[in-house]
Write a structure and sequence with these properties.
CATH topology: Rossmann fold
CATH class: Alpha Beta
Distance between the termini: 53 Å
Radius of gyration: 18 Å
Number of helices: 9
Order of helices and strands: HHEHEHEHEHEHHH
Helix content: 40-55%
CATH superfamily: Glucose-6-phosphate isomerase like protein, domain 1
Strand order of the largest sheet: 2-1-3-4-5
Shape: globular
Largest sheet: 5 strands, parallel
Structural class: alpha/beta
């Protein structure tokens, strides 16, 4: 490996860590609280985004299932070919787009509104169509990506994932979700083994 390649790799850690710290300064408590309340009350949760945002939305949907919130990722392309039938009144619809103008998401926004879902947008562009049409907007903020060309969705993916993680952590508190509940639905892997050993020790 070239010396400069290692240097760039180390810089990537620092750039992304700094991006998360800076993003926190742009998250408004009131808007975040509304999003948490909406997710806690929602019968079901749908999430959609394109590219790196879509990958983060997939993880978010999985995270919601891990705390027993019924959720699924809806592919933007499939949403316009019937998959938006998942959305119904009482649901929360989370749409993520850094620029807030992703063409594939705007029809989903319209469908969600017409069906009576609470739309939560996550975007940097507060003047965008996505922000204007959403019920709740969480502002993301990324000054630069971690690659040398400032083009790859590196820092922006990490920041969006951090916002999703923060929502999950807050929902853990709001819903009083317990380790015992998680142990029931996650018996596999190292996490499942650790939770199982706790249960055994508690019963001794």
């Amino acid at each position: 490996m070239k010396t400069k390649s290692w240097k760039r790799a180390r810089e990537s850690f620092l750039v992304e860590a700094d991006a998360i710290r800076r993003a926190l300064d742009h998250i408004e408590k009131a808007s975040f609280g509304k999003a948490v309340d909406a997710l806690a009350k929602a019968e079901r949760i749908a999430a959609s985004g394109c590219g790196h945002s879509g990958m983060a939305c997939r993880h978010f949907a999985h995270s919601m299932c891990c705390i027993e919130r019924s959720a699924r990722f809806i592919s933007p392309s499939e949403a316009l070919h019937g998959a938006s039938g998942f959305i119904r009144k009482g649901d929360a619809l989370v749409l993520a787009s850094r620029g807030g103008q992703t063409p594939e998401l705007l029809p989903i926004l319209s469908i969600g509104k017409r069906k009576g879902a609470t739309v939560i947008a996550i975007t940097e562009n507060m003047a965008s169509p996505l922000a204007a049409g959403a019920d709740i907007v969480l502002r993301s903020h990324v000054e630069r990506e971690s690659d040398k060309h400032n083009q790859q969705g590196t820092s922006s993916f990490v920041v969006l994932s951090a916002i999703f993680d923060a929502l999950q952590v807050a929902l853990l508190e709001e819903t009083e979700f317990t380790s015992e509940q998680f142990g029931l639905i996650h018996p596999g892997g190292a996490v499942g083994q650790r939770l199982a050993s706790r249960t055994v020790r508690a019963g001794e």
